[in-house]
């Protein structure tokens, strides 16, 4: 899948959580003025050499099926992110008004609504 590089800076609620050696940030954006949060932004923040592709590699390895497709991988990534936001375990951090910048290297359109998201964007995020 070709890289689709984009830089995005915003202020929003961000949930940070650990995932198999990565620190991952999850937030939402809206595709229009309704503010529905239909775009999920799931990005790694640590370690320093981690990148968005690491989420997709992890999804391929963790989903437990051979020949897992991009739709399934995207759903797996979204499941981890939404689970982290709902569970609020001791090692998760909820930042209600964080300023952040993300270098997004993949935008993936889901084939249907999943966890209230139509689009998944992944990459690397820095929180100010």
Summary tags:
single chain; 128 residues; alpha+beta; five-stranded mixed beta barrel; 2 helices; globular
| Count of β-strands | 5
Sheet/helix structural class = alpha+beta
Helical content band: 10-25%
Strand order of the largest sheet: 1-2-3-5-4
Overview of this protein structure:
- Helix content is 23%, strand content 49%.
- The protein contains two helices and five strands, in the order E-E-E-H-H-E-E.
- By secondary structure, it is an alpha+beta fold.
- The longest helix has 18 residues, at 70-87.
- Strands 1-2-3-5-4 form a five-stranded mixed beta barrel.
- The mean pLDDT is 89.
Write the layout of secondary structure elements.
Blueprint: E1 6-19, E2 22-29, E3 39-46, H1 52-62, H2 70-87, E4 93-114, E5 117-127
Parallel strand pairs: 3-5
Antiparallel strand pairs: 1-2, 1-4, 2-3, 4-5
Helix pairs in contact: 1-2
Quick overview:
The protein is α+β, with helices and mostly antiparallel strands and 128 residues long. The chain is built from 2 helices and 5 strands, in the order βββααββ.
């Amino acid at each position: 899948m070709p890289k689709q590089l984009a830089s995005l800076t915003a202020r929003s609620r961000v949930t940070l959580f650990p995932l198999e050696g990565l620190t991952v940030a999850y937030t939402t954006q809206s595709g229009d003025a309704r503010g529905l949060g239909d775009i999920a932004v799931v990005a790694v923040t640590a370690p320093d050499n981690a990148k968005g592709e690491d989420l997709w590699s992890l999804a391929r390895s963790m989903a437990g099926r051979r020949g897992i497709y991009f739709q399934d991988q995207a759903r797996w990534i979204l499941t981890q992110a939404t689970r982290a936001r709902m569970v609020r375990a001791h090692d998760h951090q909820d930042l209600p008004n964080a300023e952040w910048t993300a270098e997004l290297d993949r935008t993936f359109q889901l084939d249907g609504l999943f966890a209230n998201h139509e689009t998944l964007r992944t990459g690397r995020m820095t929180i100010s």
